[in-house]
Amino acid sequence: MPQPLAYRMRPQRIEDVVGQQHLVGPGKIIARMVKAKMLSSMILYGPPGTGKTSIASAIAGSTKYAFRKLNAATDSKKDLQIVAEEAKMSGTVILLLDEIHRLDKTKQDFLLPHLESGRIILIGATTENPYISINPAIRSRTQIFEVKPLTPDDIKVAINRALVDDQNGLGDQNIRLAPEAASLLATATNGDLRSALNGLELAAKSTDPTDGVIELTLPIIEECVQKKAFSHDKDGDAHYDVISAFQKSIRGSDTDAALHYLARLVTAGDLPSIARRLTVIAYEDIGLANPPAAARVVDAVTAAQRLGFPEARIPLADAVIELCLSPKSNSGMMAIDAAMADIASGHYGDIPAHLKDAHYKGAEKLGHGVDYQYPHNFTNDWVKQQYLPDKLKNAQYYQPKTNGKFETALAQQYERLKTAQRDS
């Protein structure tokens, strides 16, 4: 049985990796490792289909090292021993270990000395947060890199490569992919290139040619990826227009409009976009005016992800209605953006000496921490002292709003503390 298109199209050189330019682009960390042939073991974490295996394959292809792939959950210690023996004979083996968060202690203990000797370059792949799910003994011997969802433009690049590659792709077939169908492939799979290529290959194999041409239309791609397009939009902008209208309707407190756009997203089966956008809205647009609403949105999103469609629509609708009818405030976002603007423009100054770390020998001679006053030793657990650098000591980033009871109370406390800092 032939290998799937997504497998055949895996890059053999680091330059051919689609997306992940923060890791494999010119001058970036993994590209530098490959160029210098100074590879270290690493963990790649991120959503499925975003290129973890592709990066490992490209590293091996670029360095000409042997490449082996195992699964931490299903492959045995004996399988690891075979890889280790190969490494002893050939010098270095790059081992892609999928689901590394499920590596048990026996396999881990076997691997550790081989990682330290450099005979095995481990590339662990996981969808879980490695800082939580991976044993510290492995984590301390690896560099950890986040692999991000691919953009629609990234996926379009990979689709076009597959359509013209006559060795590993579909270039030996006369395929005409409609622009709106290509846009659906690029957007409906939510950054999962494997799903996009699987959908493309299914469509190509299951569509009879007309006059020698396999015409892949929007309805065919909709069927093969089991997602509906928002509209016949050649550029794929409709997807982002719906998401934009969704957020703006909630921000504008129009419940019925927000539910309409939610319904479009639900119909398209786009749970990842809904989950991300609702979480952003909860903190960006409602924020400190109603913090419990943000917590309930997180709960609703978690429930929706566990339920899946069609039931997921119910907690999502509840969350949307509450966000629409909640008081609004973007003061938290505005505050951090104002602080970051100062940093970006070079306005940050030196940290006051009394706030610097004093937990090392010689710190006192430098004046670090000497005049620090511990607030809990004072009435109301507060004492006047300077925290900002001298050049920013009068900066005020937070501009409170009073659209909800919670932030109104915060605003009053903020002003009391600012007044006390100035006057006492």
TrEMBL record:
Domain (AAA+ ATPase) ranges: 38-150
Domain of life: Bacteria
GO function terms (MF aspect): ATP binding; ATP hydrolysis activity; DNA binding; enzyme activator activity; single-stranded DNA helicase activity
Keywords from the named record: ATP-binding, Nucleotide-binding
Protein's GO biological process: DNA synthesis involved in DNA repair; DNA-templated DNA replication
UniProt keyword annotation of ATP-binding present: yes
Entry's family note: Belongs to the AAA ATPase family. RarA/MGS1/WRNIP1 subfamily.
Protein name: Replication-associated recombination protein A
The species this protein was found in: Secundilactobacillus odoratitofui DSM 19909 = JCM 15043
